[in-house]
Amino acid sequence: MTAPLLCTVTDGLARITLNRPQRLNAFNSELAHAWAETTTAVVADPSVGVILLEGAGPSFCAGGDVLDMAQSMGSGAEITALAGVINSGIRALVESPIPVVAAAHGTTAGGGLGILLCSDYAIVGSNSKLGSLYANIGLTPDLSVSAQLARAVGERRALQLVLQDRLLSAEEAVEWGLVAEAVDAEDAAAIAAAVRERAEAVAAFWLQGAYRAYGEAKRLIRSQPARSFAEQLSEEARMIGTSFDRAEAQARVAAFAAASAARRS
């Protein structure tokens, strides 16, 4: 039986692949539990410096598997419980001090938007489409969409997505700030490969740099709504002091100072 989710950790990079391509990587119970277990383990692994999210097959993630809901879910309570399982993985990624890049080729819809929003830097293909589509089947947003979408694109634009059956083009998704980049190639397969290649380049950039500082910068911004302005300033001050004491910062600060001195002499 094919695993619904794949994960490898190599040289500091954790690659998490949603692996239900025949269902556009939509979440059923098996994928939900694998997602929760894997993400929780990855963020707790001290060897992991960067996380890359991707989907197998033609799309990134179509959200929840509606066919599976109709055939095997007997009540709303079961849906709520399953969403809670997936949410634990979402929280693990969003609340961790590890930067996350998403290679989101193809379609991202429904709860897939929430999975996309777990990333701190998202890349799509020029042929990608992104939307909500919950109301089309009488459901409401889940998997962090209502929690994260408005923060990413603004309240009015978030409402446009969840109150219509609109699918954003890649160009619109970049313009709205939902994703960072859109890449192009000659056909769908080449676009998917280009999206992954670009996501890998972003991950490599972080790993080659001071990835702990990138991760803590991500944490400061992600966790800011829980603090007052004064508390945020205090946390910033604490964190820059902590960062300064790290060996990677000491070496980089010393190199910067030396380079500046050489330019002045």
Automatic annotation (TrEMBL):
Which GO-annotated molecular functions does the record name? Answer: catalytic activity
Matching entries from SUPFAM superfamilies are given as: ClpP/crotonase
Q: What processes in GO biological process is this protein linked to?
A: fatty acid beta-oxidation
**Gene3D superfamilies (UniProt xref):** 2-enoyl-CoA Hydratase, Chain A, domain 1
UniProt superkingdom: Bacteria
PANTHER family cross-referenced by the UniProt entry: 1,2-EPOXYPHENYLACETYL-COA ISOMERASE (PTHR11941:SF133), ENOYL-COA HYDRATASE-RELATED (PTHR11941)
* UniProt protein name: Enoyl-CoA hydratase
The record lists the organism as Microbacterium keratanolyticum
